[in-house]
Specification:
The complex is a heterodimer of chains A (565) and B (180).
Chain A (H helix, E strand, L loop, with lengths): L6 E3 L6 E3 H32 L8 H34 L8 H24 L16 H30 L9 H32 L7 H12 L1 H22 L6 H14 L16 H8 L1 H27 L8 H4 L6 H24 L13 H28 L8 H27 L22 H34 L20 H4 L10 H27 L5
Helix pairs in contact in A: 1-2, 1-3, 1-15, 2-3, 2-4, 2-5, 3-4, 4-5, 5-6, 5-7, 5-8, 7-10, 7-12, 7-13, 8-10, 9-10, 10-12, 10-17, 12-13, 12-14, 12-17, 13-14, 13-15, 14-15
Chain B lengths: L17 H27 L8 E3 L2 H15 E5 L4 E4 L6 E7 L2 E3 L1 E5 L4 E7 L4 E6 L3 E5 L3 E7 L5 E7 L11 E7 L2
Parallel strand pairs in B: 3-6, 4-7, 6-12
Antiparallel strand pairs in B: 1-10, 2-3, 4-5, 7-10, 8-9, 8-11, 11-12
The chains are: A mainly alpha (565), B alpha+beta (180).
The complex binds protoporphyrin IX containing FE and copper (II) ion (CU) (2 copies).
């Protein structure tokens, strides 16, 4: 049935591209970008409202817009894009046809309809419950229904991914083991099954409860199961963007993993231990024991963190090895200074890697420490942390790979390349700002999801220190910058897709997938003794020192607050 | 390349590079250090959230808070009508959270311990003690009991930091800590 006409051969990579898969990748990617546009705009409004001198929106719209922001970017932008990545990593990278494309369209439509329904529910104003929708606060039934439809659609998409892997294996479209990037995608997909199932287990009863068929849902149980979806789905993001890092390093620089074994084992650690992370959200809740919290918040003994720390060395290591192989061997850092910083795919990936580690990673581990969570829970520190992970890390990585997807899958040349070149820097700096300043405000005790830190309408009030106001002002300024960076991305993508020069057939070698360099450093990866990557060792060393210092500083902060037991 | 199948079919048999072994070892040990740090803090640290919690009906909790308030009220806060309660050190102290207030106002003594009970009458709320910055989640139907020992005198505020509807940003309570 897989007729030959259903394929084209990619002029750049020689990969066989299944056209129905290509169409689905396009549709999902476009939907993702639309929700990023919508959600990003809401994010800007939220930040401008939290800037006390600006205080843009009235309270009621603020809470509605904040709900929509979290939902549109965290769920819809990210997951639509991930479905596109899954189709790419299976059908395209394995030279295979996509299993049941018609079902892919069913999935797509379910997701789209669900996302639209949920947005309508929030905009109608009766569902300002935040995307976490903690019971017993109640949203309109169609809010939950929208989320359920979206989750079901996504689950079908994941199923198609697995089915495609099976077909590829049976039809022998590749030799040996699947590529590392596909392996990362498999990791993401396995976690996604767990996650989406948890989502169904909690959202379906909640939906029935909102309709009046169920009398009571326990607030602690809800949180436990909800976060089995909510947090584990962040591990989908991590797996997906790490896979994207490897993919970009491979396509742009021809970088090979230092060791397939190490990188794959690190992905495996995600699968084995990330499911425990729901605990991160229950560290200061009643009725959960400390033993449970310690074991789960640390993924046993930080074994999933270990996975990320390993990638943190193997990704820059692969890049350094590739660059040294090309002859950039002078000093410790020539490989880095001579890297293609003008290529937005590379610069976006590099910034994503660094900021994910320094901003999102370190703060996440610190905040997830059982006792330290006491001085951070529900403060702005929390959104500060995850704008470091899911925005600076995941979103920026996804933006970066878009610059490769547009030529390879949409077969269009990038329009306004100068703007594309600057985009990762503008967006990256903006996000670094909002991440840092929200963390700063959180350290000063400023609450998250809070309309007015001057407490103008309260009977009793509290004066936050002046520095907190400064932090929120800076957050507003950098939010504008992040929004500009986001808008640049959307302009480049939309303009290129609609008006970019077609790259039919041969085409120019746009983002040339570099020849695997023949240098000794990467000639045969993984061999003990052939690697010498001083730059990577320095970078990893700096990271580790920062991590350790910041970790202990926070214990010090904790030790100063009121004793409690 | 990472987008192609591994060159060596038996990739799981590759030897590891020394640098990688070193980094994996350091990272693994650091994980153990961080794991043990939490346990260590339970033994010697002074800031640990208690594990004591009970199921409770909101009405029952409210009754206890009202009883305490009747017994130990010392004044009202300005012209707000909110009672200020000065319970004896060591006693059980109840703080109600509901849309959108913390009730009553507590007056505690420095360096004395109290068994503070937190529970919600309706939705979830967030107990965020400022400026000291201690944050604990409050649920309906759960009575969380923690022993607190204020280590400084002054006026403290309890900001609600769990979103609880349209009045969320007006939900502020107060705790006074007096020198003995
Ligand atoms: C222009 C870019 C963005 C800006 C300026 C921005 C800004 C903000 C601000 C100020 C908050 C509110 C913090 C609070 O009051 O609690 C927030 C919340 C949030 N943001 Fe963003 N953000 C941006 C992009 C993103 C992206 C791309 C994602 C996800 C991929 C994201 C995910 C979230 C989530 C999940 C929340 C929490 C919502 C909640 O508390 O319910 N943001 N953002
Ligand atoms: Cu509240
Ligand atoms: Cu609140």
């Amino acid at each position: 049935m897989a007729a030959n006409t259903a394929f084209r051969t990619c002029p750049d990579t020689g990969l066989k591209v299944h056209l129905p898969a290509q169409a689905l990748i396009k549709a999902n990617a476009v939907a993702a970008v639309v929700f990023l546009l919508l959600g990003g705009l809401f994010g800007l409004f939220v930040a401008l409202t939290r800037w006390p001198e600006v205080h843009l929106l009235p309270a009621e719209s603020f809470y509605a817009v904040l709900t929509a922001h979290g939902m549109d970017v965290l769920l819809f932008w990210i997951i639509f894009f991930e479905i596109a990545i899954l189709y790419f990593a299976s059908a395209i990278l394995l030279n295979c046809r996509l299993a049941a494309p018609w079902l892919g369209w069913v999935a797509f439509i379910l997701m789209l309809v669900g996302a639209i329904i949920a947005n309508v529910a929030v905009i109608q104003g009766e569902s300002s419950v935040m995307f976490t929708s903690y019971v017993p606060m109640k949203a309109a039934p169609h809010f939950y229904l929208g989320l359920i439809l979206f989750a079901v659609g996504a689950l079908i998409g994941v199923g198609i991914f697995f089915a495609t892997l099976v077909i590829a294996r049976e039809e022998r479209t590749y030799e040996g083991s699947v590529p590392l990037v596909t392996f990362g995608a498999v990791t993401a997909a396995i976690i996604a099954v767990f996650t989406l199932a948890s989502g169904a287990i909690i959202l379906i009863p909640t939906f029935l409860w909102s309709l009046g068929y169920i009398a009571h849902i326990d607030s602690m149980t809800y949180k436990l199961v909800w976060w089995a979806m909510g947090h584990s789905s962040q591990q989908i993001n991590v797996s997906a963007h790490v896979a994207v890092w490897y993919a970009i390093a491979a396509i742009v620089l021809g970088a090979k993993p230092l060791s397939e074994k190490v990188s794959r084992s690190a992905f495996l650690l995600y699968i084995l231990f990330l499911q425990l992370a729901s605990a991160h959200h229950l560290l200061v809740e009643p009725g959960v024991s400390s033993e449970w919290k310690i074991f789960n918040t640390s993924y046993a003994i930080y074994l999933a963190v270990l996975g990320s720390l390993i990638h943190g060395m193997s990704v820059p290591g692969a890049i350094e090895a590739a660059q040294r192989g090309k002859g950039y061997t002078r000093g410790v850092f020539e490989w880095l200074t001579k890297a293609p910083w003008g290529n937005p795919a590379f610069s976006g990936m590099a910034l994503s890697l660094v900021m994910f580690g320094f901003l999102g990673g370190i703060s996440g581990v610190v905040m997830g420490t059982e006792q330290i969570n006491l001085i951070m829970h529900n403060t702005l520190y929390v959104p500060g942390h995850f704008h470091g992970t899911v925005v600076a890390g995941t979103t920026l990585a996804f933006m970066a790979i878009t610059y490769l997807v547009v030529p390879l899958i949409f077969q269009r040349e990038l329009l306004v390349p100068k703007m594309a070149q600057w985009q990762p820097y503008v967006f990256g700096l903006g996000v670094a700002g909002i991440s840092l300043f929200m963390m700063g405000a959180g350290t000063l005790g400023v609450a998250r999801r809070h309309w007015d830190i001057t407490f103008a309408d309260s009977t009793l009030t509290f004066d936050y220190p002046g520095a907190a106001f400064l932090m929120l002002g800076l957050n507003g300024i950098f939010a504008i910058m992040a929004a500009v960076g986001g808008a640049m991305y959307i302009v480049v993508v939309v303009a290129s897709i609609l008006f970019g020069k077609r790259r039919e057939g041969a085409g120019e070698p746009a983002p040339q997938p570099a020849e695997p360099p023949a240098g000794a450093a990467v000639g045969s990866y993984g061999n003990a003794g052939t690697l010498h990557l001083p730059g990577t060792y320095v970078l990893v060393g700096v990271f580790f020192v920062a991590f350790v210092l910041y970790y202990f500083i926070n214990w010090k902060y904790l030790s100063e607050v009121w004793p409690l037991s | 390349m990472a987008i192609a199948p591994p060159e060596r079919r038996l990739w799981w048999k590759e030897p590891l590079d020394k640098a990688e072994i070193i980094w994996i070892t350091i990272a693994f040990l650091w994980g153990i250090v961080m794991f043990l740090a939490m346990i260590y803090w339970h033994i010697v640290g002074e800031q640990n959230l208690s594990n004591e919690a009970y199921r409770i009906d909101p009405e029952v909790f409210a009754a206890k808070a009202e009883e305490m308030t009747e017994k130990y009220q010392v004044r009202e806060e300005g012209d707000t009508g909110i009672p200020v309660v000065h319970p004896p050190p060591g006693s059980d102290v109840y703080l109600i959270s509901r849309l959108w207030e913390w009730w009553p106002i507590l007056e505690l003594e420095k360096d004395q311990s109290y068994r503070l009970h937190l529970s919600s009458m309706d939705w979830q709320h967030g107990f965020s003690l400022q400026p000291t910055n201690i944050n604990v989640q409050v649920h309906p139907n759960y009575d969380l009991v923690m022993t607190i020992k204020p280590n400084e005198a002054g006026t403290f505020s309890v900001v609600c930091n769990e979103f609880c509807g349209i009045g969320h940003h007006t939900m502020v309570g107060r705790i006074y800590v007096t020198e003995r």
